From TrEMBL:
This is HAUS augmin-like complex subunit 2 isoform X2. It comes from the Eukaryota. It holds the Pfam family HAUS2. It comes from Zalophus californianus. GO terms for cellular component: centrosome; HAUS complex; mitotic spindle microtubule. One of its GO terms (biological process) is microtubule nucleation.
Length: 104
């Protein structure tokens, strides 16, 4: 009796799965379209992520270059300060200041 009950439960579960599959057949085309759109979106996101990763790597390299040049700049400033050498003001400094003032 227990064995027959187990068989009946298994049969009912399989029948429910098959009925669910049959119900979803009319929606198959719609579901395929949704899956295709989702795949296209994922492809776009993968491309954007790859571009972002490349930009991060480039930025990291630039930061390494900047970081490695800081001691040189500080050493030059220290040398100039010790020897009382003044650097002429750079022409773009005043333009940046003027632009900043105009923006405010």
């Amino acid at each position: 009796m227990v064995h027959l009950l187990e068989l009946a439960v298994t049969f009912i579960e399989r029948l429910e799965n098959h009925l669910e599959t049959i119900k979803n057949i009319p929606h198959l085309d719609e579901n395929l379209k949704k899956m295709s759109m989702a795949l296209a979106k994922m492809d776009m996101l993968v491309t954007e992520t790859e571009e972002l990763a490349e930009n991060i790597l480039k930025w990291r390299e630039q930061q390494k270059e900047v970081s490695s040049s800081i001691p040189k700049i500080l050493a030059e400033e220290n040398y100039l300060h010790k020897h009382d050498v003044t650097m002429p003001s750079l022409p773009f400094t005043s333009k940046v200041h003027v632009q900043t003032v105009n923006v405010k």
